[in-house]
């Protein structure tokens, strides 16, 4: 890799405090795939990429996505449990063929990168070889984050379940191969409480604690699911995970729509993150998460596409859905500035991805070059609001992963 400086010039989306962003004109200097300088001020005469009307942002982070589900987006009409049985499981069964999983993950990587997503918290399928293949494929493409084997021992066809001991052994091997310290790591990923008995959930909690791994699972997405969990375990959903040691600062719990006050206390005290997936919730008619209430209760919240329950690949569009959902159900809703912060630094921080989501010295050069075709800097609207609400995927001119150009618009 060349050690020559590459200069990216334009309006930079920079961190402001711990959980906000600001725009500043300036230049990023990149060497050997790493940002080595952030120089604010008028643009120099010569630079390699960008220009005064360009926006340069960190790559987007998606904190909840299912890799095997990209080909089944659009299965509209069913609700969660029927959708799983009727559409999702047949799609995931194809991952018993590891070559298929490898090829599909490369296609998914193409789609992620072309929409500006450079780090993911992703579910694979129940198959360990396919999960390893997905990790290898995303690593080859330079995408960061975590990928987990979707642990399931019941509530699915026989080809999509395993025994608890076997599944835990397989995930332990994946964690050894892709440890949590890496740019791309394995995660402990019990699919959801309905799929797992107490011993598997407790084993997953132990495994995550031993390795310091990210935990991914689903929580309280629909009322029908919550009722089923209560029937299976004799207690509330959050309590199932608390008993199993699955509520930690590294836990990403997809959805969290139906939470009572004591659920929120348990989540807050453990530092667990609710991964909000507004497009999936509307698509499957699961309900609407009350973001303002969750934030008022001091819950940590991240944002995810939840493809294929979700239908939007672009995290900008998912962020818009977050605002619209919050506005529909409550009095307060995130600003455009908060939305941009969420899909970059906010999601990276919630997922514990230290090297993602921020333009700063020492960070990997995971960069997006965006060239809007509207005069976004001179309109009588907050520029970040113009960029968010008039967003057009065709504005994305280039994507760099660790300083390597991985996407160029046609
Ligand atoms: Zn999901």
Automatic annotation (TrEMBL):
Keyword check for Zinc: yes
Cofactor: Zn(2+)
InterPro entries noted in UniProt: Amidohydro-rel, Metal-dep_hydrolase_composite, Metal_Hydrolase, Metallo-dep_hydrolases
GO function terms (MF aspect): guanine deaminase activity; zinc ion binding
Documented EC number(s): 3.5.4.3
Top-level division of the source organism's lineage: Bacteria
Annotated ranges, domain Amidohydrolase-related: 56-404
One BP annotation, GO: guanine metabolic process
Keyword Oxidoreductase recorded: no
Gene3D superfamilies noted in UniProt: Metal-dependent hydrolases, Urease, subunit C, domain 1
Pfam families recorded: Amidohydro_1
Enzyme class of the recorded protein, top EC level: hydrolase
Entry keyword set: Hydrolase, Metal-binding, Zinc
Gene Ontology CC terms: cytosol
PANTHER family: GUANINE DEAMINASE
Name of the featured protein: Guanine deaminase
Organism: Botrimarina hoheduenensis
